[in-house]
Design a protein that fits this description.
The protein contains 10 helices and 8 strands. The chain is α/β, with parallel strands linked by helices and about 240 residues long. The protein has one domain: NAD(P)-binding Rossmann-like Domain (Rossmann fold), CATH 3.40.50.720.
């Protein structure tokens, strides 16, 4: 009889960039996902489905009806429940072989240390500058890569921050003056866009874990959903950055 886990991951085991060695790396990997909203839901689903062995989930919020058009882990029956608890239940139903730890609080270096210190990389799926700054400061200090995405109406942005390679950090890309940019609650977002960008975050994470392909470090991808176009630009490190300079 075939190994049931081999059957589960058979389609990606066929990929020469992954194979059995890559699958074992995924099984051993520890990924922290901060934010279980529009980006975090699809990212968590795809990482769990791909066989990432250990997931940490951080989000202080409860499910609201306004979440349901884009946050696909939740349904009407989940309204009022904490997102991390619902997400953990759904992800274990998808892949019971995963180990999942949760924290129903805001990410801070102190409160989230027990999850963050155990992780190999962080997915920043948050939607506010305070959370992003906290994640960035932690990852720079701890020398861990982070996969970042953001959303604005029909447009998404994706990049990887890994300062151990000499590349810049989140603050090199976003100055303090950028904090006036509206988030999804203020500017709106089409429901499919978080799914696209969250899946891309999961793919970048898998590439980091397995060594497959070229990671978007030093580069930023901008996706335009209205016109179905994408472009990339080089992201420069700022010598005078207050965090990584």
């Amino acid at each position: 009889m075939a190994d049931p886990l081999t059957n589960r991951y058979s389609r990606q085991l066929l990929l020469p960039q992954l194979g059995k060695a890559g699958q074992q790396k995924l099984k051993s990997a520890r990924v922290l996902i901060v934010g279980l909203g529009g980006l975090g839901c699809p990212a968590a689903q795809y990482l769990a489905a791909a066989g990432v062995g250990h997931l940490g989930l951080v989000d202080p919020d409860v499910v609201q009806v306004s979440n349901l058009h884009r946050q696909i882990l939740y349904g009407e029956g989940d309204i009022g429940q904490t997102k991390v608890d619902v997400a953990k239940q759904r992800l274990l139903h998808l892949n019971p072989h995963a180990t999942i730890a949760t924290q129903a609080e805001k990410f801070t270096t102190d409160r989230s240390a027990f999850l963050a210190q155990a992780c190999d990389l962080v997915l920043d799926c948050t939607d506010n500058f305070a959370a992003r700054d906290a994640i960035n400061a932690y990852c720079v200090q701890a020398k861990k890569p982070s996969v970042f995405a953001s959303l604005y109406r029909f447009e998404g942005m994706l990049t990887v921050f890994d300062t151990t390679t000499g590349a810049g950090c989140y603050r090199c890309l976003y100055s303090e003056s950028s904090e006036a940019i509206q988030n999804c609650a203020e500017a709106g977002v089409i429901g499919m866009l978080p799914g696209i960008m969250g899946a891309m975050q999961a793919l970048e994470a898998i590439k980091i874990i397995t060594g497959a392909g070229e990671v978007l470090n030093r580069q930023t991808l901008v996706y335009d959903g209205l016109n179905q176009t994408a472009r990339k630009f080089i992201r420069e490190k700022k010598a005078d950055c207050s965090v990584c300079g």
